[in-house]
């Protein structure tokens, strides 16, 4: 039990340090790792009428082989925000776990939630703390989105490996297939899209990314593996049912095959 | 050379206990009882921001009476302990029993070794997977722990409040019935407590991972209103889960 003057306050990472547990892996003074590390790939966030939508493919790769087919890259950060991850899978999952705990810990100790901007800044600090590891190849690039209850709007924040934090106005995509996904969204995005349109656009962007990028997984109808899609609105973080995502894929496949036939 | 006055250990301990008991009794009491969906904790507290009841972890809540700064520090330590344990092991491994033991050790230590004992009584409550599996740990200023599975009262006049609550206690009662009984047990015969005098929170099995929820004044008011033809018999199974009037509508 900490005395009042030594109490680490509402920061969970500070609590961990205080009990002698360094929350972030410390970089070793050597070159890149002598082994293949697992990578997560394409993640997107799109603003729409009710708030924000986040989505991510399910594939993790290690070098040129597929390491995992059902990885979830979109996670709830707390009730009204979500975090998606691209990059080295190990440190990324750890970062998500710490980030979720950090927000919950603050909320419980202080009795109120952080502002959305405060949450985004917290994540920025965590990415920065990973810089040493990033220099050795363990890059983690999260995407943070949430519903700002004080302003009543959905907001999207992107990061670079040094912890730089940038707010996007309408949409963003990151990871190895991020460029292709971004182009697709750019062409299809309209202000105040409704929920089904936003889901379809996200799914289409992920399909295009998978089409161009070998590290991004496409829909797997045989194993019934579809991207993770979640919405964040005034009602909170909510996973979109797999059946609904499969249906959106059906629509995308139909329009794409039609285009194929015509060309 | 000066010689310290000799004080018999019995006297010394008794003085400390009297001091703690007297100051705890001055504060306002708090009751906790199980109901069909979990545990309801009801405190007499007019402040809307200085809470006596708070969340510790997924299924665990904390409540304290007595000196605010002392039990609030205990609360923070509890959150830290639970979050560290859940991070290092798993969320399932965080339980009220080990937290209650930790508190008991600490409070016992302070009672024996420090000049001034803690002037608080605390409650660590954990909602179980089903009815009958809820746990209430009541920890006293000297570190003694009382383990209850139906109800407990903290603070001054605990005995008479507990007696009044015991009289009305029913297995499997709903939130409204439990809260009405808790509020009238706290108020006694001479006065009436309203929604603005109470701080209420529940640990409900129906709330998902984080079971803790504060019950806000409009909802308290709706729950305190006696239902049509105040029932005195246990509610039949089928009617038990009456929808609670929506707090936002008030």
The multimeric state of the shown protein is heterodimer
The average pLDDT of chain A is: 92
Instruction: Report, as a whole number of angstroms, the end-to-end distance of chain B.
Output: 73 Å
- The count of domains of chain B is 1
Main sheet: strand order of chain B? 8-1-2-9-10
Total E-strand runs of chain A: 13
Q: Low-confidence stretches of chain B at least 5 residues in length (pLDDT < 50)?
A: 232-250
Major beta sheet summary of chain A: 8 strands, antiparallel
Global Rg of chain A: 19 Å
User: SSE string of chain A, helix = H, strand = E?
Assistant: HEEEEEEEHHHEEEEHHEEH
- Order of helix and strand elements from N to C terminus of chain B: HEEEEHHEEEEHHEEH
The gross shape of chain B turns out to be globular
Number of DSSP helices of chain A? 7
The class by helix and strand makeup of chain A works out as alpha+beta
- Total number of helical segments of chain B? 6
What is the strand content of chain A? Answer: 25-35%
Q: Kindly name the structural category of chain B.
A: alpha+beta
Mean pLDDT of chain B, as a whole number? 89
Explain this structure to me?
The complex is a heterodimer of chains A (263) and B (250). Chain A is of the alpha+beta class. Chain A contains 7 helices and 13 strands. In chain A, the strands form 2 sheets. In chain A, strands 1, 4, 5, 6, 7, 8, 9 and 10 form an 8-stranded antiparallel beta sheet that branches. A 5-stranded antiparallel beta sheet of chain A has the order 11-2-3-12-13, covered by helices on one side. In chain A, strand 9 and strand 10 (165-168) form a beta hairpin. Chain A is globular. Chain A starts with 11 loop residues before the first helix and ends with a helix. The model of chain A has no long low-confidence stretch (mean pLDDT 92). Chain B has helices at 9-26, 68-88, 96-113, 158-168, 175-187, 217-224, and strands spanning 30-35, 38-44, 53-57, 60-66, 120-126, 135-139, 145-148, 151-154, 198-204, 212-215. Chain B is α+β, with helices and mostly antiparallel strands and 250 residues long. In chain B, strands 8-1-2-9-10 form a 5-stranded antiparallel beta sheet. In chain B, strands 3-4-5-6-7 form a 5-stranded antiparallel beta sheet. Chain B is built from 6 helices and 10 strands, in the order αββββααββββααββα. Mean pLDDT of chain B is 89; it is low at 232-250. The chains are: A alpha+beta (263), B alpha+beta (250). Chains A and B meet through helix 1 and helix 2 of A and strand 3 and helix 2 of B.
């Amino acid at each position: 039990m900490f005395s009042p003057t030594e109490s680490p306050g509402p920061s969970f990472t500070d609590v961990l340090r205080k009990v002698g547990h360094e929350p972030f892996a410390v970089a070793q003074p050597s070159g890149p790792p002598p082994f293949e590390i697992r990578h997560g790939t394409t993640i997107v966030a799109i603003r729409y009428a009710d708030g924000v939508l986040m989505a991510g493919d399910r594939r993790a790769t290690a070098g040129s082989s597929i390491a995992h087919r059902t990885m979830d890259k979109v996670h709830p950060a707390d009730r009204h925000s979500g975090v998606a991850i691209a990059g080295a899978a190990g440190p990324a999952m750890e970062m998500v776990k710490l980030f979720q705990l950090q927000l919950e810990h603050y909320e419980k100790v202080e009795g109120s939630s952080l502002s959305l901007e405060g949450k985004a800044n917290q994540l920025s600090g965590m990415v920065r703390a990973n810089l040493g590891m990033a220099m050795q190849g363990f890059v983690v690039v999260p995407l943070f989105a949430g519903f700002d209850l004080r302003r009543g709007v959905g907001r999207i924040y992107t990061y670079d490996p040094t912890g730089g934090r940038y707010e996007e106005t309408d949409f963003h995509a990151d990871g190895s297939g991020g460029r292709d996904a971004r182009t697709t969204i750019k062409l299809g995005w309209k202000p105040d899209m409704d929920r089904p349109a936003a889901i379809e656009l996200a799914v289409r962007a992920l399909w295009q990314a998978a089409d161009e990028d070998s590290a991004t997984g496409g829909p797997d109808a045989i194993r019934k593996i579809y991207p993770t899609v979640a919405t964040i609105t005034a009602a909170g973080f909510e996973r979109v049912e797999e059946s609904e995502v499969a249906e959106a894929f059906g629509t995308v496949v139909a329009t794409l095959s039609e285009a194929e036939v015509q060309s | 050379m000066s010689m310290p006055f000799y004080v018999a250990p019995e006297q010394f301990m008794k003085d400390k206990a009297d001091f703690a008991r007297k100051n705890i009794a001055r504060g306002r009491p708090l009751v906790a009882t199980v109901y069909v969906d979990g545990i309801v904790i009801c405190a007499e507290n007019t402040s809307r921001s200085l809470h006596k009841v708070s969340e510790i972890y997924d299924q665990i809540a904390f409540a304290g009476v007595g000196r605010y700064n002392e039990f609030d520090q205990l609360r923070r330590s509890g959150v830290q302990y639970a979050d560290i344990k859940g991070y290092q092991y798993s969320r399932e491994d965080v339980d009220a029993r080990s937290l209650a033991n930790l508190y008991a050790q600490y409070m016992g230590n302070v009672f024996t070794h420090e000049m001034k004992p803690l002037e608080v009584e605390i409650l660590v409550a954990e909602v179980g997977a089903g009815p009958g599996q809820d746990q209430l740990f009541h920890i006293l200023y000297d570190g003694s722990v009382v383990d209850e599975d139906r109800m407990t009262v903290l603070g001054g006049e605990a005995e008479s409040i507990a007696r009044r609550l015991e009289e009305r206690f029913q297995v499997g009662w709903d939130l409204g019935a439990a809260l009405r009984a808790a509020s009238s047990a706290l108020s006694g015969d001479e006065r009436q407590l309203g929604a603005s005098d109470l701080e209420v929170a529940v640990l409900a099995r129906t709330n998902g991972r984080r079971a803790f929820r504060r019950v806000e004044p409009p909802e308290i008011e709706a729950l305190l209103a006696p239902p049509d033809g105040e029932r005195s018999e246990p509610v039949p199974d089928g009617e038990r889960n009456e929808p609670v009037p929506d707090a936002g509508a008030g």
